[in-house]
Amino acid sequence: MASLTRKLASKKQRTLEILIILKRLYPDATCSLHYETPVQLLVATILSAQCTDERVNKVTPDLFKRFPDAPALAYADRETLEGLIRSTGFYRNKAKNIQGACRKIVEEFQGEVPQQMDLLLTLSGVARKTANVVLAHGFGILVGVTVDTHVKRLSQRLGLTEEKDPIKIERDLMKLAPQPDWETLSISLIYHGRAVCQARKPACHLCELAHLCPSAMVSLPGTVTGQPPAAIA
Predict the structure, then answer these.
(1) Is the per-residue pLDDT at 191 higher than 50?
(2) Which of 56, 138, 140, 176 has the most CB atoms within 10 Å of its CB?
(3) What is residue 89's DSSP assignment?
């Protein structure tokens, strides 16, 4: 038990060091999606599934000009809606989820996006990741850590979790980072994943987290070039 406690404390300290560096590297990191209201953020987040934020941001100006709020989206012509979001992929299913979510918002939540995790999860197309984004950036409410593909990859490479399931990864990260930094950790990991720690070719030789990362493929004292250093607790 004492050994496990020391290991957790060591991992927490390393997480804090990682956070300090990430905050310095990405001081202005924030949600990349463009929106004006919580409803628009919800819709943009649903559209971002299996799609880049850049692509979503090209689609949403016309979408929100045509259908700016929950009532308009809820009762929009489905074919028109599908045409506007087609380039984001899986557009039929996304249109169905957007309309289902917006109809429930109109009919059960007086047209307002709910501000509770359990209620958000009752909306069509809303998983915990989507709900975390909406709560954090739409209302400033931090109830968890948003785990997307970047956060999953980097938290594993950094040795912050051994889990593969996003919900279990989120639980691990919530234990390691202070609650006020939960979304900061997520967003800055996303930025770092895009800029440096990419899926296929992580630029470990350029990474300022390499000395804290057990997976860094760098030449360090006592290691062989191209091989990861010894695991960090």
Answers:
(1) yes
(2) 56
(3) S
List b or e across 222-233, with b for residues whose CB sees 16 or more CB atoms inside 10 angstroms: eeeeeebbeeee
Residue-level length of the chain: 233
Find how far residue 66's CA is from the centre of its chain. Answer: 27
CB count within 10 Å of CB 191 equals: 18
13/180 Cα distance (integer angstroms): 16
Catalytic residue among 11, 94, 104, 129: 129
155 contact partners, CB below 8 Å, separation of at least 6: 147, 161, 169, 172, 173, 189
Higher pLDDT, 151 or 218: 151
What domains appear along the chain, each with residue ranges and CATH number?
2-29+146-212 (1.10.1670.10), 38-139 (1.10.340.30)
User: Identity (one letter) of the amino acid at 73?
Assistant: L
Is 168 one of the catalytic residues?
A: no
Q: Which of 12, 23, 69, 148 is catalytic?
A: 148
Residue pair 44/76 in contact by the 8 Å Cβ criterion: no
Q: What is the largest CA-CA distance in the chain?
A: 64
Cα–Cα dist 124/101, whole Å? 5
Is the pTM above the cut of 0.85? yes
